[in-house]
Write a structure and sequence with these properties.
By secondary structure, this protein is mainly α. The chain is built from seven helices and no strands.
Length: about 110
Protein backbone atom coordinates (compact mmCIF):
# COMPACT_ATOMS: atom_id res chain seq x y z
CA UNK A 1 0.00 0.00 0.00
CA UNK A 2 2.88 2.36 0.69
CA UNK A 3 4.80 1.26 -2.40
CA UNK A 4 7.71 0.31 -0.15
CA UNK A 5 9.99 -2.63 -0.87
CA UNK A 6 11.71 -4.80 1.72
CA UNK A 7 14.92 -2.98 0.81
CA UNK A 8 13.28 0.42 1.41
CA UNK A 9 11.99 -0.73 4.80
CA UNK A 10 15.37 -2.20 5.71
CA UNK A 11 17.18 1.06 4.94
CA UNK A 12 14.76 3.10 7.05
CA UNK A 13 14.99 0.80 10.09
CA UNK A 14 18.72 0.16 9.72
CA UNK A 15 18.91 -3.56 8.89
CA UNK A 16 19.77 -5.60 5.80
CA UNK A 17 16.86 -6.48 3.50
CA UNK A 18 17.63 -10.16 4.19
CA UNK A 19 16.83 -9.45 7.85
CA UNK A 20 13.42 -8.05 6.87
CA UNK A 21 12.81 -11.25 4.88
CA UNK A 22 13.71 -13.34 7.93
CA UNK A 23 11.32 -11.29 10.08
CA UNK A 24 8.53 -11.86 7.54
CA UNK A 25 9.13 -15.60 7.36
CA UNK A 26 9.48 -15.92 11.12
CA UNK A 27 13.04 -17.25 10.83
CA UNK A 28 14.38 -14.56 13.16
CA UNK A 29 12.69 -13.01 16.14
CA UNK A 30 12.05 -9.31 16.14
CA UNK A 31 12.51 -7.09 19.18
CA UNK A 32 9.63 -5.03 20.51
CA UNK A 33 11.47 -1.81 19.73
CA UNK A 34 12.13 -2.88 16.13
CA UNK A 35 8.49 -3.93 15.75
CA UNK A 36 7.40 -0.53 17.04
CA UNK A 37 9.79 1.18 14.64
CA UNK A 38 8.41 -0.79 11.68
CA UNK A 39 4.88 -0.03 12.81
CA UNK A 40 5.62 3.69 12.65
CA UNK A 41 7.37 3.46 9.29
CA UNK A 42 4.57 1.37 7.76
CA UNK A 43 1.91 3.55 9.41
CA UNK A 44 0.00 0.59 10.85
CA UNK A 45 -0.91 -0.44 14.38
CA UNK A 46 1.40 -3.00 15.97
CA UNK A 47 -1.60 -5.31 16.43
CA UNK A 48 -1.86 -5.72 12.65
CA UNK A 49 1.36 -7.75 12.70
CA UNK A 50 -0.47 -10.34 14.78
CA UNK A 51 -3.66 -10.68 12.71
CA UNK A 52 -4.65 -14.26 12.13
CA UNK A 53 -2.84 -15.57 15.19
CA UNK A 54 -4.89 -17.38 17.83
CA UNK A 55 -6.08 -15.18 20.69
CA UNK A 56 -4.67 -15.75 24.15
CA UNK A 57 -7.10 -17.63 26.38
CA UNK A 58 -6.88 -15.19 29.28
CA UNK A 59 -9.68 -12.73 29.85
CA UNK A 60 -9.26 -9.27 28.41
CA UNK A 61 -8.49 -6.42 30.76
CA UNK A 62 -9.31 -2.79 30.16
CA UNK A 63 -5.88 -2.17 28.59
CA UNK A 64 -6.18 -4.95 25.99
CA UNK A 65 -7.28 -2.95 22.96
CA UNK A 66 -8.48 -5.28 20.24
CA UNK A 67 -9.20 -3.80 16.85
CA UNK A 68 -12.62 -4.73 15.46
CA UNK A 69 -12.42 -6.57 12.15
CA UNK A 70 -13.87 -3.60 10.26
CA UNK A 71 -10.87 -1.49 11.33
CA UNK A 72 -8.44 -4.11 10.08
CA UNK A 73 -10.46 -4.50 6.88
CA UNK A 74 -10.43 -0.73 6.34
CA UNK A 75 -6.68 -0.41 6.88
CA UNK A 76 -6.02 -3.37 4.58
CA UNK A 77 -7.20 -1.36 1.57
CA UNK A 78 -5.31 1.51 -0.07
CA UNK A 79 -8.45 3.72 -0.06
CA UNK A 80 -9.18 2.95 3.57
CA UNK A 81 -5.61 3.65 4.56
CA UNK A 82 -5.70 7.01 2.74
CA UNK A 83 -9.05 7.90 4.30
CA UNK A 84 -7.84 7.03 7.81
CA UNK A 85 -4.62 9.00 7.35
CA UNK A 86 -6.50 12.06 6.03
CA UNK A 87 -9.03 11.86 8.88
CA UNK A 88 -6.27 11.79 11.50
CA UNK A 89 -4.72 14.91 9.94
CA UNK A 90 -7.85 16.91 10.79
CA UNK A 91 -6.72 18.56 14.02
CA UNK A 92 -10.04 20.23 14.86
CA UNK A 93 -11.86 17.59 16.96
CA UNK A 94 -15.35 19.13 16.59
CA UNK A 95 -14.83 19.17 12.82
CA UNK A 96 -13.76 15.50 12.84
CA UNK A 97 -16.84 14.61 14.85
CA UNK A 98 -19.10 16.51 12.45
CA UNK A 99 -18.10 14.45 9.42
CA UNK A 100 -21.05 12.23 8.59
CA UNK A 101 -20.78 12.03 4.80
CA UNK A 102 -19.25 8.55 4.75
CA UNK A 103 -21.91 7.24 7.14
CA UNK A 104 -24.69 8.78 5.03
CA UNK A 105 -23.32 7.28 1.81
CA UNK A 106 -22.84 3.86 3.40
CA UNK A 107 -26.35 3.74 4.87
CA UNK A 108 -27.39 1.90 8.04
CA UNK A 109 -24.84 -0.37 9.71
CA UNK A 110 -25.57 -4.07 9.44
Amino acid sequence: MLDMSQTDLAVVVGVAFQQVQKYERGTNRISASRLQQMSRVLQIPIASFFEGLPSPSRSKGKHDAAYPSYVSNLLATPDGHSLARAFIQIKDRPLRLSIHLVEEIAGPAE
